[in-house]
Each structure stands twice: as C-alpha cells, then as structure tokens.
Design goal:
Sufe protein. Chain: A, 4 strands, 30% helix
C-alpha cells in the first residue's frame, strides 16, 4: 500500500491518497479529504490500470476525471494521484515533491 499526502494550498484542503495493488494490473485508489470535487473523482478512478499513468493528458483517466470534477486546473492532487500509482505499481521510487514560492 502506498499513501501520499497532498496539501493543496490556499484552498486549505489536504488529501490523503491511498493506492493499493489489486489482482492483475489494477490499482485501487481511495481518498481521505473534505474536498467534494476530489471525492467525486472516485466515481471514475477508484480502480485504474497500472499502465494508465503513462498515457498522455488527453487520454489519462486521472486527468480526464479531473477535467470533469476539479474546477481549479492548478490543483496538485492529480500529480499526487499519479505518483502514488507509479510507486504502488513499482514503476517509481517514493520521493517527496515540493513546489516552493520565493518572494524577493
């Protein structure tokens, strides 16, 4: 099981993403969050094909679901979902990601 926590920023929502291998080449996803938009994505992506992380933005099931449910296009949750799938599938190593704002 792989868990990723995304602190989304100014919206104030935190999303805990859990990715778990299923039988075959599927990854089961669950989200712990108060963001209703992210929770609605589970209608589409509660189970995804492992190799879907390598599809482009137009055909990627995570981004397709986000296009339907997420109003803020800069939301970092989609990247967190894809990273969790990659790690759980053994296609990447877990490494923290960070976006930093620097004020001059």
């Amino acid at each position: 099981m792989t868990k990723v926590i995304v602190n989304s920023g100014i919206c104030g929502f935190t999303v805990t993403i859990t990715a778990e291998k299923d039988t075959g080449k599927k990854i089961c996803l669950s989200f712990d969050t108060e963001c209703e938009m992210v929770l609605k994505m589970l209608d589409d992506i509660s189970q995804v094909d492992t190799m879907s992380v390598f599809s482009n933005h137009i055909t990627n099931p995570v981004y397709r679901s986000a296009a339907k449910h997420i109003k803020h296009t800069a939301c970092p949750v989609m990247s967190g979902i894809l990273k969790a799938i990659e790690v759980e599938a053994g296609l990447a190593l877990p490494r923290d990601i960070r976006i930093e704002f620097i004020k001059d």
